[in-house]
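I am writing to request your help with a piece of structural work I have in hand. Thank you for your consideration; the sequence and its tokens are set out here:
=====
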Amino acid sequence: MKIFYKTFGCRVNQIETESLSEKFSSVGCEREDDLSACDMVFINSCSVTEKADKDILNFVKKSAAMGKKIAVTGCYSSLFPGEILKIAPQAVLIPNSQKHLSAQILFKASSQDDFFSVSGSYGRTRAFVKVQDGCDLKCSYCIVPYGRPVLKSKTYSKTLSEIDSLIKKGFKEITVSGTRLGRYECPETGFSLKELLKGIFSLDGNFRIRLSSLEPMEIDSKLLEICRQAGEKFCDHFHIPIQHCCDNILKDMKRPYNFAFVKEKIEIIKEMFPQSGVFADIISSFPTETCEDFKLNKQRIEELSLSGIHAFTYSSRPFTEASKMPQIDSKIKKERSLIIREFDLRLRAFFALSMKDKKLNVLSLRKKDGFYLGLSSNFLNVILPDKCVKNQFYNVKIKTVNGSFLAGEI
């Protein structure tokens, strides 16, 4: 059985797909990267935006038209199974809560695994390990808690064993990921993310750990100190889903903090990690966002001295409180989105320029046009000399900055 895998959505979904592909391989299935040549299409869906919904249905329609066997799991298939079956009545729908059992459901394979694990990452030099799933925040704009309502975590021992195995296989960078990573809690020992990271950093080997994302209220000095003490084993890159910088919008979003709280957290990060890359999710055009709110949001983003923005335009999602509010005109949405995305480019360019004449720890990833492309610990693209070797660390003194790309001396 040749399977074509299609993943929609976040990094967590990508990690889950990698894990599932390995489970399918263990029962004799073969990964096929050519859609036309596969026997089955396996879709790991997302429903975080209206566009994601449309993209998923279009891909299901395309696969059905090609006569492919179709299996769909993920948030969209759990929330809107009827929409998929209208297009592809023959599709097998696997609830999000049973996603980890996909191989058993489809091929009657036997497995006792109750969480996702990845023994290697398909075609990549970096590995991704999911240690937590589920969210119970119930923000007024977000559909994720409806698709992943149960908080659950991988055990401490299994996580360390999995990461140790990846290190021994030669992976140099491992991203530890979760829907709410800061809510990690080992089901056996009660260990928090702090204890987990201590254990990971104590493993032998030449590797570094990158964290996927952390909510502002889940960042504290103790956690940051554990990361700082790890030295080059920790990537000084922080992805924080702030969502907005106006207190009234944060309140309407049902986010449990205000701007002053966020600013304090980022100031602590920058004090402890002077060269860190601090990136934030920002949503524009939330239903109650006025012109004044939008201007203040941009002004306060500038106050935070962020390294970049993951910009999102508000998308009305079923079941959420915000979907029942009067919505902002689509033209205004596009204008605000464009302004935020242009602002992001300026922030990233300024961050890159600020690294000139500084030393960065860079992992070489792949060769292109006679040079190696690398990724720094603080999440910058760095061009390395031809003499470099793939999947090795280099301390690079940055001499040239061209847009978002840097180059330097080893």
User: Anything to note?
Assistant: The mean pLDDT is 92. The two ends are 47 Å apart (CA to CA). The chain has four domains: 2-107, 119-235, 237-354, 359-409.
